[in-house]
Amino acid sequence: MPTKTDVIKNLDWVTERVSNRVWSVSVGVLATALAYIIESTKQDGTPFLLPQQVVGPAVVALLALIFDLLQYIAANSQDRALLRRMEKQNVTQLPYDSKSFWYTIRNTAYWIKIIFCFISVLWIVFLSIKRIISLF
Q1: How far apart are CA 64 and CA 107, in angstroms?
Q2: Looking at the domain assignment, is residue 74 inside a domain?
Q3: Which residues touch 69 (CB under 8 Å, ≥6 apart)?
Q4: Count of the separate structural domains present in the chain
Q5: Which of 43, 79, 127, 129 has its CA 20 to 30 A from that of 1?
Q6: Which domain holds residue 125?
Q7: pTM listed for this prediction
Q8: In angstroms, rounded to a whole number, what is the distance separating the alpha carbons of residues 36 and 126?
Q9: pLDDT in tens, the chain (136 residues)
């Protein structure tokens, strides 16, 4: 049976993996969007997808990256505030304030980055499939 310490360690590990995947997938969507614009499918230089078609998924992928960064800024601010409280109260242990501004921002940013990442992937995959079908 896992202890509270085990659960916290596992959550830290999972959160890091999720963030790494959000970065990888979002950057992949951005690279795919740029590749579609740059790479042509015909000799006349027509891109696989037009810039106005890929701007949506690219912007959503960028937003996923921004919210990932915001999550870490909020976590840093939350931890610094907790450390100041510990030092002020001269204690070595205090719980996180789950109603604090930074705690709320941190949790909200976590879920928003995942949602934006999924949206950007689904959007670029939909556009790609639609374009491939139109080539036949």
Answers
A1: 14
A2: no
A3: none
A4: 1
A5: 79
A6: 19-69+105-134
A7: 0.85
A8: 14
A9: 667 788 778 888 888 899 899 999 999 999 998 888 887 666 777 788 888 999 999 999 999 999 999 999 998 898 888 888 888 999 888 888 899 999 999 999 999 999 999 999 999 999 999 999 998 8
